[in-house]
Amino acid sequence: MLPNATNGRNSLILKKGPFIEEIRSEIMIRFLSFLASTVLFALIYAWIYMTSYQLGGYSPRFSEGFIIAIFYAGAIYFIGGLPLSIFLDKLIKKYKTKASLLRYFAGLVLYSLAGILVGFVFLVISGADRDLYFDVVISVSIFGLIAANIYYHLSLLIFKTIKN
């Protein structure tokens, strides 16, 4: 007969409690926000891609823009957005103010700046550092700003929905 995997140490087993439930709830909120934000951003990007790009008489399809955006946005949200959102949420919670409107605007500004930063870092990492034209930097910054605000507002909505 095989010995018990814990060898009598119950410290390795996570018991149910308020702290563990809070962690599970936070992970679930972040995961749902990640999924919903990725899909919503991909839908918006696909619509913009379909309506604004004309490539020598070729009109791109909605599905092309959606597939492109779902992969890139998903990776960027996961690699850059989630760690930054954890940091920003801790930073916002650090300032314990009763004014929820002030907390909201602080989060809005911080998430917007983080979105612009992540967009710019993505632009540099993707190898466009030699061709950083002003219009490219502005458009990527706007997409980063939109993506960050989608995540921020969806996470607030999901948090309110789950907590109530």
Keywords:
single chain; 164 residues; mainly alpha; 4 helices; 76% helix
The helix tally amounts to: 4
The rounded Rg comes to: 20 Å
| Count of spatially separate domains | 1
Structural class: mainly alpha
Strand element count: 0
Q: Which residue ranges are poorly predicted, with pLDDT under 50 across at least 5 consecutive positions?
A: none
Strand content: under 5%
Per the principal axes of the C-alpha atoms, what is the gross shape? globular
CA-CA gap between termini: 47 Å
Helical content stands at: over 70%
Average residue-wise pLDDT: 79
Topology order in helix (H) and strand (E) letters: HHHH
Main sheet? none
Short description, anyone?
This protein has 4 helices and no strands. It is mainly alpha-helical.
Explain what you see.
The protein is mainly α. The chain has one domain (18-163). The protein has four helices and no strands. Helix 1 packs antiparallel against helix 2 (62-94), helix 1 (18-52) packs antiparallel against helix 4 and helix 3 (100-125) crosses helix 4. The protein is globular and about 60 Å long. 21% of the residues are buried. The model has no long low-confidence stretch (mean pLDDT 79).
Write the layout of secondary structure elements.
Blueprint: H1 18-52, H2 62-94, H3 100-125, H4 134-163
Helix pairs in contact: 1-2, 1-4, 2-3, 3-4
